[in-house]
Amino acid sequence: MNITEYMVYWTKSDGTPGSMKIDSLEQTLTYAELHRRQGMRFVTMCAENPNQVGKMGVDQIVDNKTPDGVEYTWMKRRDGGQ
């Protein structure tokens, strides 16, 4: 059973916003592409999983490990990639 809810948001050329709730990812992708082809602007989509627990991403690093014990080695490069 798919319990994830998807939303597509868009803006018409006159600035009027619109949105639609859709139940499957496949239909959401199709609907968003259709709106883009019809000339809608700022077409975007999002989803919310009600079974998600905690914050998305890593929210705490202690001794270079994530809360579930996985080693965390990512570091932001500040040298412009050189």
The largest sheet, given as strand count, sense and whether it forms a barrel, is: 3 strands, antiparallel
> What sort of overall outline do the alpha carbons produce when their principal axes are compared?
elongated
Q: Quick check: average pLDDT?
A: 84
Query: Hey, roughly how much beta strand do the residues contain?
Result: 25-35%
- Specify the number of helices: 1
Strand order of the largest sheet: 2-1-3
What is the chain-wise order of helices and strands? EEHE
Secondary structure tally: strands? 3
Kindly state the percentage of residues in helix. Answer: 10-25%
Sequence stretches where pLDDT stays below 50 over 5 or more residues: none
- The helix-and-strand class reads alpha+beta
N- and C-termini, Cα separation: 48 Å
- The radius of gyration computed from the alpha-carbon positions, rounded to a whole number of angstroms, is 19 Å
In short:
This protein is an alpha+beta fold. It has one helix at residues 25-37; strands spanning 5-11, 17-22, 41-48.
